[in-house]
């Protein structure tokens, strides 16, 4: 019997698997596809996701393969163009040492998955492709999985990270409440295209060469560190389907110099806005698109899935290592409201021109404000809040230092002992905050005084905060 089987090797399943494997939990990852996805799908990686993935040691690699600087170029009806910074509110603003990444990174989803697969392989785990789950049944001790070839696997826990049409969710009988919007459709594809500059993310609203061709919005985004572009064409015609020929025809109609060399993927998409009302049934947990789907507007789907994975990974690892499974209840409690918020926000952004988004909506999409707080405000981050970064001596940072252990205890104004009631028995480091701080940023970011002790959870949120702790 395996400890954990993860069904689905998209970004959610891969991140969950890394989180488990790096904590010594034997994990197996299945995917029904013959090999990795080739489509660029979720290409906007939000800064909070980079922070979460930084703890897995892959943020720098992702940043090196993506781009923060890809301004929008709006093509107007009269042939003129208007450029707009993607992270306009950040241009010229002062660097913030508590937040290493502040804008969204453009990177194709297949690349993010590749980096996560490579990280997983470092833990000795390879994805089993061509292995499709057909059904599952659970009892008190474990879960039986029946595969498409009729064979069976058994594991103590199962993660359903198998996307919007999740088999795991269906087998659990968990409802997927919401709506399908037949009228909001996209033709999607990746292609090699000549005749457009790769320094901008090009957009056309319903005008010019598109009028009469059924498209209401057209976006071509050059994918960094590749030769390809992502094509997104919004339309309302249920009889129109993506094919290399149709994508080529529509793209080439944009201008006489625009030529498609090769279409590498072509698919149809229509808007579903749905979510589950529970992420866990016994020994089976849902994560990512299996638990919530919504509009790509604002670029939050993959990011929310990775957020689920990082929230769940350490908790399930702790339970496998002996913690009370009640810890897993906090997974639904914390992540379900985040999904509900994202469904609402992406709904507000759907169909709105990029430039008409408010500054608050843009900030919201970045994920830096996500909190699991259930306690009143304090002088600094309290239980459930994001634990900010800060510079430490020797050119280090708190985020880098946090990688050394699951739990980090920041003691201000003198030493303290590690709390004895942290779940799961993962490694704990107690840091003498004042001795390590490079400057006043750490104290300020945590609103700390002498005697403040902040315990940071393995997923980068505050676990507890105590003022005027008695020195050890
Ligand atoms: C046009 C477009 C643009 C987008 N842009 C963004 C963006 O900018 N930012 C963002 O965050 N998100 C974006 N998204 C959303 C993002 O692509 C998804 O949210 C993301 O793929 C969800 O990841 P996941 O791992 O949960 O599921 P998936 O990526 O769907 O992975 C699920 C995996 O499970 C496997 N599977 C399914 N059933 C079975 C089974 N029975 N047995 C075994 N394996 C199975 C599948 O083969 C698949 O590999 C966009 C989506 C689209 C379509």
UniProtKB/TrEMBL annotation:
Necessary cofactors: FAD
Keywords: FAD, Flavoprotein, Monooxygenase, Oxidoreductase
Endpoints of the signal sequence: none
InterPro entries: FAD-bd (IPR002938), FAD/NAD-bd_sf (IPR036188), RIFMO-like (IPR050641)
A molecular function (GO) term: monooxygenase activity
Domain FAD-binding: 3-343
Pfam families given in the database record: FAD_binding_3
Top-level taxon of the source organism: Bacteria
Gene source species: Actinomycetospora termitidis
Protein name (record): FAD-dependent monooxygenase
């Amino acid at each position: 019997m395996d400890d954990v089987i993860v069904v689905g090797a998209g970004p959610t399943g891969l991140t969950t698997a890394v989180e488990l494997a790096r904590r010594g939990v034997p994990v197996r990852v299945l995917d029904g596809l013959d090999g990795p996805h080739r489509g660029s799908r979720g290409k906007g990686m939000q800064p909070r996701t980079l922070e979460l993935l930084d703890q897995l040691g892959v943020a720098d690699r992702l940043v090196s393969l993506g781009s923060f600087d890809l301004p929008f170029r709006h093509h107007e009806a009269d042939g003129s163009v208007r450029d707009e910074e993607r992270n306009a509110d950040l241009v010229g603003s002062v660097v913030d040492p508590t937040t290493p990444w502040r804008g969204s990174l453009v990177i194709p989803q297949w690349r993010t998955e590749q980096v996560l697969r490579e990280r997983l392989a470092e833990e000795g785990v390879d994805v089993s492709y061509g292995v499709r789950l057909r059904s599952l049944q659970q009892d008190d001790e474990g879960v039986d999985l029946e595969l498409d070839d009729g064979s069976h696997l058994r594991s103590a826990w199962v993660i359903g990270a198998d996307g919007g049409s999740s088999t795991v969710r269906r087998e659990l009988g968990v409802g997927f409440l919401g709506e399908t919007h037949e009228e909001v459709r996209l033709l999607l594809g990746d292609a090699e295209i000549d005749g457009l500059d790769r320094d901008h993310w090009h957009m056309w609203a319903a005008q010019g060469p598109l009028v009469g061709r059924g498209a209401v919005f057209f976006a071509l985004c050059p994918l960094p560190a590749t030769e390809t572009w992502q094509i997104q064409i919004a339309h309302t015609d249920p009889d129109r389907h993506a094919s290399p020929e149709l994508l080529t025809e529509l793209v080439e109609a944009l201008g006489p110099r625009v030529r498609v060399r090769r279409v590498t993927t072509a698919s149809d998409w229509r808007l579903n806005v749905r979510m589950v009302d529970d992420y866990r049934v016994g020994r089976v947990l849902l994560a990512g698109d299996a638990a919530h789907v919504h509009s790509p507007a604002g670029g939050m789907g993959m990011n929310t899935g990775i957020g689920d994975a990082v929230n769940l990974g350490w908790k399930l690892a702790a339970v496998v290592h002996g913690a009370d499974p009640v810890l897993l209840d906090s997974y639904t409690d914390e992540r379900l409201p985040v999904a509900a918020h994202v469904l609402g926000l992406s709904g507000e952004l759907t169909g709105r021109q990029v430039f008409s988004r408010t500054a608050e909506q843009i900030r919201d999409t970045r994920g830096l404000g996500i909190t699991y707080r259930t306690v009143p405000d304090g002088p600094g981050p309290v239980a459930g809040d994001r634990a900010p970064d800060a510079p430490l001596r020797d050119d280090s940072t708190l985020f880098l230092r946090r990688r050394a252990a699951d739990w980090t205890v920041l003691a201000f104004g003198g030493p303290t002992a590690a709390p004895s009631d942290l779940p799961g028995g993962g490694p704990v480091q107690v840091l003498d905050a004042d001795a390590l701080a490079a400057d006043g940023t750490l104290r300020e970011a945590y609103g700390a005084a002498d005697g403040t002790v902040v315990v940071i959870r393995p997923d980068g949120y505050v676990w507890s905060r105590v003022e005027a702790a008695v020195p050890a």
